[in-house]
Design a protein that fits this description.
The chain is an all-alpha fold. Helix content is 67%, strand content 0%. The N terminus is likely disordered.
């Protein structure tokens, strides 16, 4: 299986860069951009629908070129990382027979590379199954290798995708961006599992597709939400409904309000005690309000009992 099997076939896929003359295309786009900027700078020219179509057209071309260039760069960088990793793996194997400690040797002879970087290169080089996915970039590919290390067979990375009902051969019909979204969502879902956070993968993928941030802060927020009695899936749905923005602590605000209600109810008990101590003033109290209050309290108590054995 060659390196280009999973590169897709749309305008943002890796296949495109094989026939991509960056210099000529960049030159053409540079001239188009220059002309557009001149046009936008004309104070007397209205920014109408026709002009905005032109802006969006050139922006689309620039972003497409950016994506293809980034994909090409990732492929080259991973290829170089594999070469370096293979050299290191071979050296390490040789030094083992001479009882030379690899880490000390590497620090002395290759100080330009941090230990973590060497580890990434060496693992990716060893994992031949990852070489079909060079376009994903070094860091993402390394994380995928770590995440899939316990899967059976030689194609561990493919098995990782399949464990999420994602068939790698379908990547042929996907853009690089779509494959990255799957990869990032899988990695984040596994991080949540390590933090004992149970969340649906589909919700994570939907959030990633809308450019939501899958980062440490989200893990922290989900953990906090879960510990306080909330459901992680509910929090993710909040984000999806709010364009990826945190739900302004809706659930936490609700809990704070209910804690405040406890103190208000305690004050109400004191009011009732005062009323009982002043029976002569009972005629002032509105009977309808008392009846409504009694009815509401009964409904709250019945609802609370239905929740089970609460303290």
């Amino acid at each position: 299986m060659d390196d280009y099997q999973y590169f897709g076939n749309d305008s943002t896929s890796v296949i495109e860069f094989l026939n991509f003359e960056r210099s000529s295309e960049t030159e053409i786009l540079s001239k188009e951009t220059e002309n557009l900027i001149k046009e936008l700078s004309e104070l007397n020219k209205p920014i109408d629908e026709k002009l905005m179509r032109k802006v969006k057209d050139i922006m689309g071309k620039l972003m497409e070129l950016n994506d293809r260039t980034l994909t090409h760069t990732n492929h080259v960088l991973v290829t170089l990382a594999i070469m370096i990793g293979e050299i290191f793996n071979t050296l390490k194997a040789r030094l083992k027979y001479r009882n030379v400690k690899w880490e000390a040797f590497a620090k002395k002879h290759f100080p330009m590379l941090k230990s973590r970087t060497r580890q990434k290169y060496m693992l990716i080089a060893r994992r031949k199954d990852s070489h079909n996915f060079k376009y994903l970039g070094i860091d993402r590919l390394y994380e995928l290798c770590v995440a899939s290390k316990n899967f059976p067979g030689e194609e561990k990375l493919e098995e990782l995708f399949r464990s999420y009902q994602i068939e790698p051969r379908n990547f042929l019909n996907m853009s690089v961006q779509e494959v990255k979204e799957f990869a990032d969502s899988i990695l984040f879902h596994r991080k949540l599992k390590k933090s004992s956070i149970d969340a649906k993968f589909d919700l994570i993928l939907d959030l990633k597709k809308m450019n939501g941030k899958l980062d440490r802060k989200l893990i922290k927020d989900l953990k906090k939400f879960q510990v306080s009695g909330g459901c992680p899936d509910q929090y993710l749905r909040f984000l999806l409904q709010n364009n990826g923005k945190p739900p302004t602590d809706l659930e936490e605000d609700k809990r704070k309000r209910f804690r405040k209600i406890n103190s208000e109810l305690a004050r109400l008990i004191n009011v009732f005690s005062e009323i009982k101590d002043n029976r002569s003033e009972l005629e002032i109290i509105d009977a309808n309000i008392l009846e409504t209050l009694a009815k509401e309290l009964k409904e709250i108590m019945d609802s609370r009992k239905s929740l089970g054995n609460l303290p």
